[in-house]
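HUMAN: You are asked to prepare a plain-text protein record giving the amino acid sequence and the backbone structure tokens, both parts labelled.

ASSISTANT:
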Amino acid sequence: MITQGPVVKQLAALPRSERMDFLTGIVEAQFKAALLMTEQDELPLDENYFILGLNSLRVVEIKSGLEELLGRELDTATLFSQPTVGQLLGHLADEVLGDLFPSTAAASPAQSDTRSAIVADVLKRIHGN
């Protein structure tokens, strides 16, 4: 069920180009608070948050906080199977808030063509054709 939490309403009001930065700020704030970091501390987006010092209980608390802010349910397993803030942000944009974020393929057909050309080039080099 899609509901409108306070963050979703704010995201919807923003231009699409600003939504990911806004979402990143919201998610970072939740993790920084759980890790007892200040706003000035840099949170590495690609580092496992368990290595940063979180435990299972704190991750579930972050999940609950994000669900309240977003007004949408998050799959607990995702937070454990993709344990970086960057991966979580990707999941939120693609799966949880997909109605507010354009899909990568839909957003840029040119990127898809470029990827296809790169794959074709790599395959040619591998097979020597």
User: Anything to note?
Assistant: The chain has two domains: 6-98, 104-129. The CA atoms of residues 67 and 73 lie 5 Å apart. Residues 104-129 form one domain. The helical segments are 6-13, 16-34, 56-70, 76-81, 85-96, 104-107, 109-127.
